[in-house]
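Incident review: delayed structure delivery

Summary: a single-chain prediction request sat in the queue longer than the usual turnaround. Root cause was a stuck worker, restarted by the on-call engineer. No data loss occurred. The affected request and its eventual output are reproduced below so the record is complete for anyone auditing the incident later.

Affected input:
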Amino acid sequence: MGAAVVGLSLHGGIVKPFCSTFFVFTDYMRPPIRLSALGRLDCVWIFSHDSVAVGEDGPTHQPVEHLAAMRAIPNLTVIRPSDATEAAEAWSLILGDLKGPICLVLSRQNVPVIDRNALASASGLRRGAYVLVEAGSPDVVLVATGAEVGTALGARDLLADKGLQVRVVSMPSWELFERESAEYREEVLPRGVPKISVEAGSTFGWAKWVDASIGIDSFGLSGKGDKVLEHFGISPAGVATQVEEKIAELAVS
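Output delivered after worker restart:
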């Protein structure tokens, strides 16, 4: 199937070819994905089941290092939406102005739709990262992707009860954010404020954007998806606890 996508892309025309499977199978799909990046081909690689929340299938089917691996491929734009509204925005962008190979990474589990009447518009996805919810004078910035954006919002509420002001940034695409001006990037991720990433996967590469990371740097476990996430600290309470610890560590470093 991957070879067919590359072939259709090389042929050109009005068709935008795509291929879809589980995210862990990028291990097998890497050659055609890499070829599409080499040729800057206009195609879409769509993947689901993007984290250890896959659950009972266990470590063999739970992506951990795969986001880092896709982000490492030159010319490939990786987009991991936080909810249905960001996913719709991503697809609109893909069918519109965004050219070249795109890797769209989606979750398996039920993900609550973020209330865009109360928080920022999903159109911020087009800039790669945007302030989803502001804090008057933030003590910390949580930078999350995919389903973990909702987790970061939950952690924000818990941290607010302890007097911490938390800005939450949704960062669906490093590559799109990189294309923005330095001024905009500074506006979203200000200097002088601790920035911590929240993502249910390898923390490799996040040091470019943040001061510390909450993630999963080991293989997963077999079990209910929510229980596996909780085991690795990817829950509102788990993230809130780790944020406090990392703020303390950054303060003395």
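Verification: The first strand starts at residue 18 and ends at 22.
Action items: add queue-age alerting; document worker restart procedure.
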